[in-house]
Amino acid sequence: AQTVTQSQPEMSVQEAETVTLSCTYDTSESDYYLFWYKQPPSRQMILVIRQEAYKQQNATENRFSVNFQKAAKSFSLKISDSQLGDAAMYFCAYRSAKTGANNLFFGTGTRLTVIP
Amino acid sequence: NAGVTQTPKFQVLKTGQSMTLQCAQDMNHEYMSWYRQDPGMGLRLIHYSVGAGITDQGEVPNGYNVSRSTTEDFPLRLLSAAPSQTSVYFCASRLRDSRHIQYFGAGTRLSVL
Coil, strand or helix: which one is B54? Predict the structure, then answer.
């Protein structure tokens, strides 16, 4: 099974500064999807950003961007101009692009604290 | 647009009791799934369904049953609750094509005493 590793259990950032959350994964497949989900205290899982492995261009969504290094199997999330509302658990996740692939494999999460 | 709705939000059970966690989606998604989230771990797949009448096991299926009689609903049944099933449970849905985004419900926090 694929594994997803988030080596930073906790991170903190000053408001308005930039922070990068790390994620690595292990797979033998060439086509897959990578995701970052945000889980605030409300528990709701919110999709932040998605990357398709066959696309070389890094995905961006407003203040959120990724650094996707396919050869290194690395998928980091950069949050620019951090806001208090960004404080949450962040989960990296992987899903195969194979037909019939159903499991979304999650990392253990990084708790982000935003300091005013 | 309600999205994915889970009920109840909280539940306390005694060991050996049974209960059903409800999940409904109004987006006409073929694919639905149940995950559990334990402290210090990511979400793990319990069961999933690719359409009405079709279900299959995920990574941690033991102790749980599912059925899918309609496209909208995907209930998760605990037949005889155990303390090891204390967790937060998430239901999710998406269109069949794996390109599509998976939407999650708000979760059910279950405690088994």
Answer: strand
For A17, phi and psi rounded to 5 degrees? Answer: -90, 180
pLDDT tier for residue A7 given thresholds of 50, 70 and 90: very high
Q: Spell out which residues of chain B touch residue A93, defining contact as CB-CB under 8 Å.
A: 42
Q: What is the pLDDT of residue A59?
A: 92
pLDDT for the residue A1:
62
Q: Which of A43, A47, A108 sits opposite B107 (nearest CB)?
A: A43
Q: What is the largest CA-CA distance in chain B?
A: 40
Pairing of strands B103-104, B87-94: antiparallel
How far is it, in rounded angstroms, from Cα B18 to Cα A116? 46
Three-state DSSP state, B98: coil
Q: Kindly report the backbone phi and psi dihedral angles of residue A45, in degrees, each rounded to the nearest multiple of 5, phi listed first.
A: -90, 120
* Record: contact A95-B98, CB cut-off 8 A: yes
